[in-house]
């Protein structure tokens, strides 16, 4: 997609370089080079000084806000970027008007939040319930609104968001690898204050974007090579940090382009270039894992996968999750229609009012808000997913990338997440409503 920047204001070089950034006919070679440089700088500035930058920093503030390198910030970083992105986002919505498909999704999610708020009246865990409800009504609701009402309304915003997401994931991956490379991966820069699953979620998302570029970019071009290198770096990091679900989510997401491009014609299976590349990447990954096991160069992630298959080896995280699932189902049967109330799982499972959840958002909604709450939550997913079609997924790589990101986030939410701690899931749910190519309005790069 070609994007034209709007003419800027006059510069000090107006005599040879007009405000639009193009050199006048007959200008000297220096002026021509200066004009090209100004266009690059202006475009980079417009991307970095954008709503999407603030929104990415808001979504993933938990990955770096407690790092000592940011101790000089006098306020909570999550709150800072929440307020900043909210202010800019509301301005964008006012200027570009309300995107109706996104509004319908937001209204449905608010219906679920309204029922969750009502359930606070009968919860036995008011402390955790209030904390969870506060986050749902502020941070999580805005995560959905930013994706559904702001970014999904303009495809250029979505492309910019994906690029900035990948940049952020790369910074975290480099921080991990730099410490792991010197054999000291217990002191972890950006990740020092965060959990490995949260870091893996971000890095896995960046790997998905890089993988999408890799399978659709023309082979052997600079973009194709850079995407491959970036995908390799991010995937390697996932095998280092210890999270299993991000690896599984990435692997499943990589299979989606193969499924989307399955075509049968006259008794033949037609192959698509993306399917061949997916197979090559998967085979390369399997070969790498086999080599690591055979050579004894086991990373922490591979060792944790080994716990699942080792006889007599106890995997405490898996055991705890299974106990959470069983308790949630058993407890739901005691209050099937209305649930036990928001934030009730912790006090009923532990015996005291503390942050604990089933590590599965559907079981969490079922236990705390009952069948009614689960139905409202499920309706949100149906409303977003029903706009997808096989033809769109085959011809819109950006939409396919969003679906891959959503599937990875959804898998994480079903294995490790809590309703108030899966902000990226709500964002990707909103991004599924991105304006179809046939209905794209003229996009312009703005700094709002």
TrEMBL record:
Domain of life: Bacteria
Cited InterPro entries: O-antigen_ligase-rel_domated, WaaL-like
Subcellular location, principal: membrane
GO molecular function: ligase activity
Subcellular location: Membrane
Transmembrane region(s): 44-64, 70-93, 105-122, 134-151, 158-177, 197-217, 224-241, 247-264, 276-294, 361-385, 397-418, 424-442
Domain O-antigen ligase-related: 230-377
UniProt keyword list: Ligase, Membrane, Transmembrane, Transmembrane helix
Membrane topology recorded in Swiss-Prot or TrEMBL: Multi-pass membrane protein
Cellular component aspect of the GO annotation: membrane
Name by which UniProt lists this protein: O-antigen ligase family protein
Natural source organism: Marinimicrococcus flavescens
């Amino acid at each position: 997609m070609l994007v034209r920047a709007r003419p800027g204001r006059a510069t000090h070089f107006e005599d040879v370089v007009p405000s639009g950034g193009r050199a006048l006919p007959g200008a000297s070679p220096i002026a021509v080079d200066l004009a090209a440089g100004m266009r690059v700088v202006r475009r980079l500035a417009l991307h970095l000084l954008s709503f999407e930058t603030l929104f990415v920093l808001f979504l993933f503030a938990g990955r770096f806000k407690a790092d000592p390198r940011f101790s000089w910030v006098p306020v909570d970083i999550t709150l800072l970027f929440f307020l900043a992105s909210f202010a800019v986002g509301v301005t964008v919505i006012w200027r570009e008007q309300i995107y109706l498909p996104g509004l319908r999704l937001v209204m449905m999610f608010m219906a679920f939040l309204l029922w969750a708020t009502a359930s606070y009246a009968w919860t036995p865990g008011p402390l955790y319930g209030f904390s969870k409800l506060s986050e749902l009504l502020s941070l999580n609701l805005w995560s959905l609104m930013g994706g559904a009402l702001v970014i999904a309304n303009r495809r250029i915003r979505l492309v910019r968001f994906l690029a900035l997401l990948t940049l952020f994931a790369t910074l975290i991956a480099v921080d991990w690898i730099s410490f792991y490379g010197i054999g000291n991966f217990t002191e972890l820069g950006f990740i020092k204050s965060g959990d490995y699953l949260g870091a893996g979620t971000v890095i896995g998302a960046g790997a998905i974007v890089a993988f999408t570029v890799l399978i659709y970019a023309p082979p052997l071009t600079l973009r194709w090579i850079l995407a491959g290198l970036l995908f390799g770096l991010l995937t390697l990091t996932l095998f280092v940090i210890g999270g299993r679900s991000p690896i599984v989510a990435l692997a499943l997401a990589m299979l989606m382009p193969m499924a989307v491009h399955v075509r049968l014609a006259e008794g033949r299976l037609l192959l698509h270039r993306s399917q061949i590349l997916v197979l090559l990447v998967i085979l390369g990954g399997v070969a790498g894992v086999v080599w690591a096991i055979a050579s004894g160069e086991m990373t922490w992630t591979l060792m944790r996968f080994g716990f699942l298959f080792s006889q007599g080896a106890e995997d405490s995280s898996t055991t705890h999750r299974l106990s959470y699932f069983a308790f949630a189902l058993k407890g739901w049967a005691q209050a099937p229609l209305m649930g036990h109330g928001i934030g009730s799982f912790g006090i009923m499972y532990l015996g005291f009012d503390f942050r604990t959840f089933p590590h599965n958002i559907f079981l969490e909604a079922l236990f705390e808000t009952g069948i009614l709450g689960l139905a409202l939550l499920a309706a949100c997913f149906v409303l977003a997913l029903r706009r997808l079609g096989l033809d769109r997924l085959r011809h819109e790589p950006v939409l396919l990338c969003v679906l891959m990101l959503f599937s990875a986030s959804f898998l994480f939410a079903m294995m490790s997440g809590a309703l108030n701690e899966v902000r990226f899931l709500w964002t990707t749910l909103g991004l599924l409503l991105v304006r179809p190519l046939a209905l794209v309005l003229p996009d312009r790069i703005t700094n709002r």
